[in-house]
Amino acid sequence: MDNKQWSSVEESRQRINADICPIDERITVPLAEALLAVLAEDVIAPFNVPGHDNSAMDGFACLLADVGHAQENVKEITLSVQGRAFAGHPYTGEAMVRGACIKIMTGAQVPAGCDVVVPQEETTMTANGDVVIAANPRRSKGLHIRAAGEDLRHKQVALAAGTLCFPAHIGLLASLGVERVVIQRRLRVAFFSTGDEVRTVGEALGASDVYDSNRHTLRAMIERMGFTAVDLGVVRDDPQQLAAAMDAAVDAKTGCADVIITSGGASVGEADYIRTVLAERGEVRFWKVAMRPGRPLAYGKIGGVDFFGLPGNPVSVMVCFYQFVREALWLRAGRRGSAALPLLPATTTTDLRHARGRTEFQRAVLVQHTDGRRTVTTTGDQGSGILSSMTEANCFIVIAAECEAIAAGDTVMVQYFEGLV
Description:
alpha/beta, 6-stranded mixed sheet, 8 helices, elongated
């Protein structure tokens, strides 16, 4: 590929995603360890959920024939209370008869024969303990009753292979009595920073040195996704040291990585060796993306290991990670379905500067107003070294490459990432 040729953001994303091969190495873990894991096989419901008809309200379980009157002259119905039903303590008395009802609590099993539940607030009690129910011709069979199998039917696929387990999925698995689940083993993601000026936190800084924030940011982003982060430290701008670090990452004896991520050294400077070393060890698929920040993004392969060479500027690292690496990692882990950050329309409160030719991701704050409006305001200076802007932002304003001037009051598209960064 001609070094002067730049790929668009969308083209780059599609090329990377099409190139990713999901791992297929299954392990079985306790349910408590399945958060942010990808299911390796379908989970089949072993029984109906719920297992029986139960009440959705505190009230009275009745026969619709008694309480579904449509006659204008019928204002209320008086029923005798035949018994009580509580969650975990079903009614076990005599069969239901016309003119009677069962006092029932939310979650309690609906007694056989009852086909409607009347909420308590639609009733009053008489002095002798009967219940008076207001007539309502709109009552229908099954009203306020959760039917057996309403959530899941016996032998239904409850969760499909490739599902990423969030808290709701963990709860669903628990409702099925699942103690252990078969998942794809978690990705091993090796990462290191490059640069002679980069110092590890805790070391003394020289006159032109900087502390390595990128490695800590990468570790946090990787572990936030539930993957195993393999920290290979800081590697100097030396081809032999870079080659040794890449070899260590793919060495089966030390736990072969599925993905390698580097920061720095992917540009065109005299000391930027990442692309050259990657080409010697494997294959460079492409290395320039028409975006800002984050243009010098290298993507390639070392054997079966995916490689991402990210820029050295702190903001560029995060932008590239969330635009390309995050989704690719989920695909590598076996997750099905799109993991891309969603785009939302919002109104910009300020004019936005932009040079045509590159897709730009500006850090900004999105506000959802009570009247439904969304407004967005940039964090200020958009320099790629201003990491504090990422701590202030909750979204990216995405400005298309072909876009020109954007005025205050215009509609823009934003990627909301609250909770990710």
